[in-house]
Specification:
- This protein is an alpha+beta fold.
- Helix content is about 30%, strand content about 25%.
- It is globular and about 80 Å long.
Length: about 700
């Protein structure tokens, strides 16, 4: 038998999925023989790769393997999103067409909320003094009207370098029609200033919409040096540990790409990792024949929600990264940094287990978005943190065990009580327990808001869906959040605390290619489109081959971006070589989103090709775990506080791997990676693969 190469060989070797969170770094290892191992280690925010390398070494030892037996490492990282959130990207400059330096700041001339007088516009990632104009002009049809002033390009680049700029974004008007000027400018800068990174808009987003293209290019340039440096350190560390295996990075669309692609186009990886949990949720739903899901992920820093409807992930073509709640910008615009990239439709709020609770100047209790993180951590960690967090509240109320992460993190109830009493209970003249309940109520409301953003605000009734609770803290809060939204069922996977890392092992490799194709639908000629699609497909297959995907594992999907004439936004629909069929598909897609349609002229905007590298070694959620039948007797009994009305209740505590098939609440089910809370009146049933389905009263 021949030697398997590339992605083909992953079906017979050990594969590791790694997800970095604000508090813990989660790892899952599938050994190629059906066994799955998982581990949580404390994150190291100052140097995220240190936690990854520590966890990889530990989980390889758990599986009794050698580093040489690892054939693939799949990684989801928050480096990109944290860079934007903390504004710690590279000093970035923009070189653009004369007269267009303020496109980045003007944006869409919109505000996210019409009546919010407190709203402040996000500060551009490139200061105005670092936005340089050069003479050049290309018409909308690609004709060169004004030749590129090469001397002006070099002069502008020199001024930026002298100002300490280390990463350039180059974005010229209508370059998507004719890239000659951008290509020449990028070449000149690279030749004369080899020490800087250059991102041209055509290499990231070769399509119309000047603001979206400029913003996406700038985000890429801003994040690129930071992610490059991180991936370099990580790959060096893996090599030093004896792991000679490809490193794949999860992108914002829930798919995978090589680390080389992530280095060049980090804007596609800003939501890296978060989308993998949604992919895993959809695969789990497919295995259990549950087609309508809301995937709710609560970690240490943030909580997110995404919709899986009729078995399909909800995806969008643009995303705005903003403080507060981040959502795809189909309905809420201008609140953050625009990225026109394929993205799983995820709403995220800064409410995680490490989120700090405090009393604001108006005398109201707030939770997040500031997090205690892994260092110094919540007060109960005893590692320097003194402010109360959601974890402290859950521990004080009895929801959490005395140790987390498989016993690696001891918790102090006394420290949690003292912090909550000092900062929250005393100002409101409450008992520490009631103040802790207040923390839970606030954070649950915040997370319910994220779920409403992907359901109610999309015209979807959450009561028709099953809530999938993942993340280290998702199962602790899921039942209460489901009650807030009148959702009757909660599904908790077998390993919820590391489920995002498992989702990465269920993903495929994807690459995206786009070409402008502006024409009225009535004038659309399928033969011309076929020629353009053939060229895009050739690019996609070449890119997948570069990702070591075997030819027989490649698949290609064609899409068409369309809109009503005069509108700014477009929608993608599957390509059909018939104008009438395209017309019907676009009208149906438009009505599904906006609940109405129009009789206006329909335009084709661009053609898209998605190349997928299918992975035969993907983790199988039907076989990944086997439930062990346990005793009906609990491991212990402890008092849990369920609010002022119910007070403390003696609650049975079960170990996840030994719990009975059916449990009537109240109950707490403890695992190495997460804790599940079954409230009074609810019922939890375990299936043959160790998943729990909680039915609420």
């Amino acid at each position: 038998m021949g030697t398997l190469t590339g992605l083909e060989r992953t079906s017979t070797g050990a594969r590791i999925g790694v997800d970095i969170g604000g508090t813990f770094t989660d790892l899952v290892l599938a050994d190629g023989r059906g066994a799955v191992f998982h581990r949580k280690v404390a994150s190291t925010p100052a140097a995220p790769e240190e936690a990854v390398l520590e966890g990889v070494a530990a989980i390889i030892a758990d599986a009794r393997l050698t580093p040489a037996e690892v054939t693939e490492v799949v990684h989801g990282t928050t480096v990109g999103s944290n860079t934007l959130l903390q504004k710690v990207g590279a000093p970035t400059g923009l070189i653009t067409t004369k007269g267009f330096r303020d496109v980045l700041e003007i944006g869409r001339l919109r505000t996210p909320s019409m009546f919010d007088l407190q709203w402040e516009k996000p500060v551009p990632l490139v200061a105005r003094r670092h936005r340089k104009e050069v003479a050049e002009r290309i018409a909308a049809d690609g004709t060169i009207l004004v030749p590129l002033d090469e001397a002006a390009v070099l002069e502008a680049a020199q001024e930026l370098v002298d100002a300490g700029i280390s990463s350039f974004a180059v974005c010229f008007l209508n370059s998507y029609r004719n890239p000659a000027h951008e290509q020449r400018a990028a070449t000149l800068i690279a030749e004369h200033f080899p020490q800087v990174r250059v991102t041209s808009s055509i290499s990231v987003l070769p399509e119309a919409k000047e603001y979206e293209r400029t913003s996406t290019t700038v985000v890429n340039a801003y994040v690129r040096p930071v992610l490059e440096a991180y991936l370099t350190r990580l790959e060096r560390g893996l090599a030093d540990a004896g792991i000679d295996a490809p490193l794949l990075v999860c992108n914002s669309n829930g798919a995978l790409a090589s680390s080389g692609t992530a280095r060049e186009k980090p804007v596609f990886f800003i939501s890296s990792g978060r989308a993998a949990g949604v992919v895993g949720g959809s695969r789990l739903g497919e295995a259990l024949d549950i087609k309508d899901l809301v995937v709710f992920d609560m970690g240490g820093t943030t909580a997110s929600a995404s919709l899986v409807q009729n078995g399909e992930l909800t995806r969008v073509s643009e995303y705005e990264f903003r403080a507060g709640i981040s959502t795809p910008s189909r309905f809420i615009k201008a609140g953050g940094y625009m990225m026109s990239v394929p993205t799983v439709d995820v709403a995220e709020v800064g409410s995680g287990a490490g989120s700090i609770a405090y009393v604001d100047q108006g005398g109201l209790m707030r939770v997040g978005p500031v997090s205690a993180g892994a260092d110094p951590g919540p007060a109960c960690y005893g590692s320097g943190g003194s402010r109360p967090t959601v974890t402290d509240a859950n521990l004080l109320l009895g929801y959490l065990p005395a140790q987390l992460a498989g016993g690696s993190r001891a918790l102090s109830v006394e420290a949690a009580r003292a912090a909550i009493a000092r900062d929250l209970a005393d100002p409101f003249n409450l008992t520490p327990e009631d103040a802790a309940c207040g923390v839970r109520d606030v954070v649950n409301a915040n997370m319910a808001r994220a779920i409403r953003a992907v359901t109610v605000e999309r015209g979807v009734d959450p009561r028709d869906f099953t809530l999938v609770a993942i993340g280290g803290s998702g199962p602790v809060h899921a039942a209460d959040i489901a009650r807030l939204l009148s959702m009757p069922r909660v599904l908790v996977p077998a390993s919820p605390g590391v489920f995002t890392a498992m989702g990465m092992l269920a993903g495929d490799v994807e690459r995206y290619f786009i070409r402008p194709f502006a024409v009225k639908l009535a004038d659309f000629q399928p033969p011309e489109a076929e020629t353009a699609f053939a060229a895009l497909e050739a690019d996609a297959r070449a890119a997948l081959a570069g990702e070591a995907v075997a030819e027989h594992l490649m698949s290609v999907t064609r899409e068409v971006d369309m809109r009503f004439r005069g509108q700014e936004m477009s929608l993608s629909v599957p390509y059909l070589a018939d104008r009438d069929a395209l017309h019907a598909a676009f009208k149906a897609a438009y009505e599904a989103i906006y609940s109405y349609s129009s009789s206006d002229t329909i335009e084709v905007v661009s053609l898209r090709v998605i190349g997928r590298g299918l992975r035969p070694g993907k983790i199988d959620f039907r076989a990944a775990h086997a439930r062990v039948e346990g005793s009906s007797e609990p491991e212990s009994i402890r008092k849990v506080y369920y609010g002022a009305e119910q007070g403390h209740i003696d609650t049975p505590v079960y170990v996840r791997t030994r719990c009975p098939a059916r449990i009537v609440g109240p109950a707490v089910i403890e695992g190495a990676d997460s804790t599940v809370v079954v409230p009074p009146g609810a019922t939890a049933e375990a299936d043959a693969h160790a998943n729990l389905l909680i039915t609420l009263a």
